[in-house]
Specification:
single chain, 82 residues, alpha+beta, three-stranded antiparallel β-sheet, globular
Length: 82
């Protein structure tokens, strides 16, 4: 898996899924933090395509890291204050 601080992008500039080897367009943002390393308000992100959303979410959730799962469009809108 990629662990990007910033979203990975395809050659066309579209964000891509964080699952190892996947180059599909990202549709979901999985916001997470590791409470042993990060302050409570800090959010790291993984991106997921439809196929990998559940797997990546489960990976983070079983460790207690998953904080939120939203669409990429919702995440972008909240980041720009729309």
């Amino acid at each position: 898996m990629n662990f990007p601080d910033t979203p990975a992008e395809s050659a066309a500039g579209a964000p891509v899924c964080s699952a190892k080897g996947c180059r599909a367009d990202a549709v979901w943002v999985l916001a997470w933090n590791n409470p042993k390393l990060h302050t409570p308000e800090r959010r790291k992100t993984w991106l997921a395509c439809e196929e990998h959303r559940e797997h990546l979410s489960s990976f983070l959730d079983v460790r207690g890291f998953l904080k939120d799962v939203v669409t990429l469009a919702e995440w972008d809108a909240s980041a720009t204050g729309r």
